[in-house]
Amino acid sequence: MSTANKNLSQTSLESNEFFQSLSIGLVVSEWNPEVTFAMSEAAVTFLIQKGVPANQVLVQTVPGSFELPLASKWMAEQKNIHAVIAIGCVIQGETRHFDFICEACANGIMQVGLQTNKPVIFGVLTTQNQQQAIDRAGGKHGNKGIEAAETALKMLLLQK
Ligand code: DLZ
């Protein structure tokens, strides 16, 4: 299913007392900041709305999406962190850089989750142009940050 059929901000997740005990880390890429910071802010707001204490939501930035896996690993290795949300936006350019970054980033983030046994969420947009990214960072298709934050909480509920 594509985001043409699902609004990324739509959520059915109810607040839960369990969420008050959680600490969630966000790793946010500084590339395309108007997109990634909008996703990060939406994710943080969502987590707090659902009951995660504001002082237990930790945000760290990295230079680009390629750096998300390693920084996510550092964060996931922290004992007090229950889940990590990796947020980035890779926009297709004229060279094959896009393919290399997307592949490394997606595989790296998945590996970190498997290695640390903690939810490490792929909150990365991979789009053909900037408008598609803006549409998914609070625009007409909703906000991928909310989808990523909801996924983190759902995975922690499942793990519990
Ligand atoms: C170099 C680069 C390019 C061309 N495009 C993006 C992008 O669209 N989104 C993104 O998050 N990062 C980009 N980067 C930076 C790389 O992710 C990485 O930070 C550098 O290659 C240094 O390792």
Describe it for me?
- It is built from 5 helices and 6 strands.
- The protein has 160 residues and is an alpha/beta fold.
- The protein has a domain at 55-159: Lumazine/riboflavin synthase (Rossmann fold).
- The protein has a 4-stranded parallel sheet, with helices on both faces. The chain has a two-stranded antiparallel sheet with strand order 5-6.
- Strand 3 (83-91), helix 3 (97-116) and strand 4 (120-127) form a beta-alpha-beta unit.
- Helix 1 (33-50) packs across helix 5 and helix 2 packs parallel to helix 3 (97-116).
- The structure holds ligand DLZ.
- Ligand DLZ binds at residues 29, 31-32, 63-67, 88-91, 93, 97, 101.
- Ligand DLZ binds next to strand 3 and helix 3.
Features:
single chain, alpha/beta, Rossmann fold, four-stranded parallel β-sheet, 5 helices
Brief overview:
The protein is an alpha/beta fold and 160 residues long.
CATH class of the domain at 55-159: Alpha Beta
Distance between the termini: 28 Å
Oligomerization state: single chain
Largest sheet: 4 strands, parallel
Mean pLDDT metric: 95
The CATH homologous superfamily of the domain at 55-159 is called: Lumazine/riboflavin synthase
- Which structural class do the helices and strands define? alpha/beta
Fold-level CATH name of the domain at 55-159:
Rossmann fold
Chemical compounds bound to the protein: ligand DLZ
Task: Count every beta strand, where a strand is a DSSP E run of 2 or more residues.
Answer: 6
Please identify, by name, the CATH architecture of the domain at 55-159: 3-Layer(aba) Sandwich
- Helix percent band: 40-55%
Cα Rg: 15 Å
Q: Order of strands across the widest beta sheet? A: 2-1-3-4
- Which regions have little confidence, pLDDT < 50, spanning 5+ residues? none
Provide a count of the helices.
Answer: 5
| Shape call | globular
Q: What fraction of the residues are assigned to beta strands by DSSP?
A: 15-25%
Give, in order, the helices and strands: EHEHEHEHEEH
